[in-house]
Amino acid sequence: MKVTVLMTLYNKGAFVREGIESVLSSTFTDFELLIIDDASTDDGPSIVRSIPDPRIRFVPAEKNSGRAASADRGYALAQGEYLAVLDADDVMAPERLARQVEYLDQHREVAVVGSWLQCFGSSTEVIRFTAEGARAKAVGLFTVPVSYPSCMFRTHIVQHGGVRAVADWLLPGEDHLVMLAIGEHGIYANLAETLTRYRVGEQNMAFGRDAKADRMALADAILRWYGLVASAAELAAHDRLQLQERTPLTTAQVGAVHDWTQRLQNELPGRRGMPSEELRLELKRRTDRLFYLIADGSLKGGWTYMLRSGITIPRLRYWASRCFKGV
Question: So where are the chain's domains?
Answer without folding.
Answer: 3-200, 211-325
